[in-house]
Automatic annotation (TrEMBL):
Gene3D superfamilies: 1.20.1050.10, Glutaredoxin. PROSITE patterns: GST_NTER (PS50404). Residues 1-79 form the GST N-terminal domain. It comes from Paracraurococcus ruber. This is Glutathione S-transferase. InterPro entries: Glutathione_S-Trfase_N, Thioredoxin-like_sf.
Amino acid sequence: MRILSNTTSPYARIARIALAEKGFDLSGTRMLNPWADDAEMLGLNPASRVPTIITDAGLPITESLLILLWLERKVPEPSLLDGPLDRIVSQAGRAMGVIDAMVAIMIGVLQMDPHWGETRVGLRRRRSIVTGLRALDADPPGHAGGVPDIAVLTTVVALDYLRLRFPDAHWVEPLPALDALRAKVGDRPAYAATRPYL
Ligand SMILES: N[C@@H](CCC(=O)N[C@@H](CS)C(=O)NCC(=O)O)C(=O)O
């Protein structure tokens, strides 16, 4: 099993953390720019997006949440869904909404127009980030030890991506509960080894 990734993608990081927590060896990870029309990537994934996993049989598996679904079935223990299921999935959905909105802004800014974040759609995405993070901070995912569930995983990935991509944004509110959650799990090997960087 190998994974195609890059150093910033929150989606790829979700898959990498989940794989590492489940005990996969990620030393064969290939970092690439998914926007660069890489031949291996295009041959495996017509959408040319990270994460793309290649199974030992050569089959591509894509889409971060499908990868979590596949993994949970493939390697049930340790589970990333241990705990109150409805709450975990609900909170993970909130974090994914924030991630999607942040990535939409970055694509707009980097691939289209540096001021895309101030367009009507850009401001709508910004609102999703602010209100999504506010809701998560007011009612943060819990972590009592052990392997963090997908609510913790996606929330910490969202927070790290926010700090990387929007370090000085005036609209980012204080997030003390989420910072505390990140401090609790951020040093786990799966998290520390995949911290995003430019
Ligand atoms: N829905 C996909 C989104 C993956 C995605 O958009 N990845 C970005 C990096 S953050 C990418 O590879 N973008 C390249 C492109 O859109 O052409 C998932 O959950 O895996």
